[in-house]
Amino acid sequence: MKKYFLFIFLFFTSFSFSQEIIGTWDFDYILPDSTESGENLKPISENDVMHINEDGSFHYEIANADYIAEGSWDLNEDLLSFHYTLPDEMVRVYLITTSGNILVLNENGVNYAFTKAEIIPEEIVTSAITINSILRGILGIISLLLIAFLFSRNRKGIDWMLVSKGLGIQIVFALLILKVSFVSSAFEFVGKIFTKIISFTQDGTMFLFKSFETGTIESPLMNFVVMILPTVIFFSALTSLFYYWRIIPKIVYGFAWLMKSTMGLSGPESVAAAGNIFLGQTESPLLVKPYLDKMTMSEMMCLMSGGMATIAGGVLAAYIGFLGGDDPVQQIMFAKHLLA
């Protein structure tokens, strides 16, 4: 029984000891163990560090000596073994002592002393919503409403209840995307689809315009026509194909029914506004072409305003490429928010 307790004690002692040495260590000095001051045996600088990783690997550099070492480590009581793979394959065994944030490795009468690197915690931004952003948004909404009110031909006929309902739906929609995980995940999934489509166009662009020598697109060709326009063309063609397959009309009519139910819009207004999600400002009014001559001035204004307030799917893909660059994570983020 005593042997088992001794084994458990040694195991946890060794585990605790190994946890103490894991981390990033700054070089302090390299001196004979008979002294703790004087000129270092190797020229070390403030930027020289040693990483002892939890996965059993280590890495350290001495920049002034142009020395890089890495490999794996294991700990047996107070003996630390470094199994080097760089600069040469070898094994070096150090007698280890620790005291708080100080680590000393002794080998052949030489002390390699280190101090624990101070870890500065990164500031975690919990939310992008700030007082300034809220005030800026409120100012923008008030400005738009004021401009619309001043240029209105029939100010008494404005349905302020409908305006409030529309603003409320937008706010609720924004909160759902920003704060509700499954809604955000749904838009992120759609954003990944857009990003994947953009990657197809990038592959096609590379196939057409890359150099046979370097395998990349030369800098003189990196312009709007080569880098962005193929995305617009491909996405527009894809939209036309989905329209031919009657996929987009079903989605458009679904959105139109939702707008008509919540905002009380007429049928042509709803269909045209929903069509703006996929089609451009010139194509979406064609969805309600038979009704254009019967629409009122208010409905016509709504039709044109909806076109100006939205972008076509092809342009959306171009914007995602503009803002996200070559980073897929950034592309997904911008796609999610632009879709909203």
Description:
- By secondary structure, this protein is α+β, with helices and mostly antiparallel strands.
- The chain has 3 domains: 20-116, Lipocalin (Beta Barrel), CATH 2.40.128; 131-167; 180-339, no CATH class.
- Helices cover 51% and strands 18% of the residues.
- It contains 11 helices and 8 strands.
- The chain has helices spanning 2-21, 131-150, 160-179, 181-209, 224-227, 229-244, 247-263, 267-275, 297-309, 313-324, 328-339; strands at residues 23-32, 49-52, 57-62, 67-76, 79-86, 90-99, 102-107, 110-116.
- Strands 1-2-3-4-5-6-7-8 form an 8-stranded antiparallel barrel.
- A hairpin with a 2-residue loop joins strand 4 and strand 5 (79-86).
Overall form: elongated
Strand line-up in the sheet with most strands: 1-2-3-4-5-6-7-8
Order of H and E elements: HEEEEEEEEHHHHHHHHHH
Number of strands: 8
**Tally of distinct domains:** 3
Contiguous low-pLDDT stretches (5 residues minimum) are 1-16, 121-127
For the largest beta-sheet, the strand count, sense and barrel status come to: 8 strands, antiparallel, barrel
Secondary structure class reads alpha+beta
Number of helices: 11
Task: Supply Rg.
Answer: 33 Å
Percent of residues in helices comes to 40-55%
- The first-to-last residue Cα distance is 66 Å
Report the sheet-strand fraction: 15-25%
Mean pLDDT figure: 76
Please tag this protein with its features.
51% helix; disordered N terminus; 340 residues; 3 domains; Lipocalin; 8 strands; 8-stranded antiparallel barrel; alpha+beta
